[in-house]
Amino acid sequence: xxxxxxxxxxxxxxxxxxxxxxxxxxxxxxxxxxxxxxxxxxxxxxxxxxxxxxxxxxxxxxxxxxxxxxxxxxxxxxxxxxxxxxxxxxxxxxxxxxxxxxxxxxxxxxxxxxxxxxxxxxxxxxxxxxxxxxxxxxxxxxxxxxxxxxxxxxxxxxxxxxxxxxxxxxxxxxxxxxxxxxxxxxxxxx
Length: 190
Hints:
The structure is a single chain. This protein is an alpha/beta fold. It is built from seven helices and six strands. The protein has a six-stranded parallel sheet with strand order 2-1-3-4-5-6, sandwiched between helices. The radius of gyration is 15 Å and the shape is globular. The model has no long low-confidence stretch (mean pLDDT about 95).
């Protein structure tokens, strides 16, 4: 059976933003949908999240992963760590940072050290690319936290679809408005 796993962003949980809405629509499209509460929400930790995901979910060629912000970064890290025999069907990255050098506005609220365990020491883009069949990378021109350079760098390394969504902020209600309550535009990429 097709599965959909949505990883929330820093300081968020399964009931926040558009996560449950997308999970419900996924169910209507035949996915078994999950929005797990990640073990380290306020200080994302790649190693702990990787172990948690592998312990609780089956990842295979029927799996679609969606990550928002640090949740998207965690997905890249998970792909890098996966055994070579595991191939994910599709990965959708929404406002994905690839390093801790984000906007000054974000660092007013979230110190860089809170990201210390989010990023691997180095990205293995070839391994990441080999771990999924398809990639969709979404970013906004007015994201107040994650600069567009992150999305374009990911795209230059792994390919896929690079989608700019003007006016969507950080893809949350606070920065992108009420249209992000359900984020129905995301469904076409499933």
